[in-house]
Amino acid sequence: MASWDKLKAIAFDLDGTLIDSAPDLAAATQATLTELKLPSCSEEQVRSWIGNGAKVLMQRALTHSLDRPVEADMLEDTMPLFMKHYQENLEQHSQLYPGVLEVLNELTSLGYSMAVVTNKPYRFAIPLLKAFKIEHHFTKVLGGDSLEKMKPDPLPLTHLLDKWKLKPEALLMVGDSKNDILAAKAAGISSIGLTYGYNYGEDIGLSCPDAVCVQFSEILKFVNNSVKVMEHESV
After folding, report:
1. Residue 81: CB partners within 8 Å, gap ≥ 6?
2. Looking at CB atoms within 10 Å, which of 90, 157, 180, 183 has the fewest?
3. Which of 5, 13, 20, 180 is catalytic?
């Protein structure tokens, strides 16, 4: 079990952690495949493909539909089409997971600095946060295209440590995917794995996070006693 008494800041994944965005992504993926006159897919299949960014999602969808590996040129040509359909479906079917709003309110009142670290393209992350009126809780939002590398690479988390002038023990990563846990381990920070999100059908516990939560609200029992919060001027 990690030590939580030095915790000052929390980084959250977005898709599958704060927001169930799979229905929007599924609608966009299905529309893209239909426009390409290819066999479609189910929402459940899309849920198993989420987690490594939009391009990998589309690569998995095309590979499934074609029943063979997709060529790089076709994938590149397909991405603008997928982005168009996702823009059209953004915020249409997504929902906040239970307890997210209440927990974010509580963590903000306790003085934690919070960030979103997602592999979703930045231009889609911001509107989604605003649509659910939770963007004000986060002083930093990093998309999959915000830096040179994305999760499971530790760069987004080490970037936060540098910008917020934090030691690794002061930052916690909360996510639903092994990419979140692997990034946290590589950055030397603690992590909480959520069981309800998108993790390719794998038990998040197999990635050995410092704690596992079935519900988002359970996060509070780990961080509520952490009284050392980041000073405003260090953010």
Report:
1. 32, 35, 36
2. 90
3. 13
Q: 9-20+96-234 maps to which CATH number?
A: 3.40.50.1000
The yes/no answer on whether domain 22-89 falls in CATH 3.30.565.10 is: no
What residues are designated binding site for Mg(2+)?
A: 13, 15, 176
Catalytic site includes residue 5: no
How is the chain split into domains, by residue range? 9-20+96-234, 22-89
Residue pLDDT tens, the chain, 235 long: 466 889 999 999 999 999 999 999 999 999 999 999 999 999 999 999 987 888 999 999 999 999 999 999 999 999 999 999 999 998 889 999 999 999 999 999 999 999 999 999 999 999 999 999 999 999 999 999 999 999 999 999 999 999 999 999 999 999 999 999 999 999 999 999 999 999 888 999 999 999 999 999 999 998 875 544 444 334 4
Per the annotation, binding residues are 13, 15, 176
**Residue type present at position 105:** N
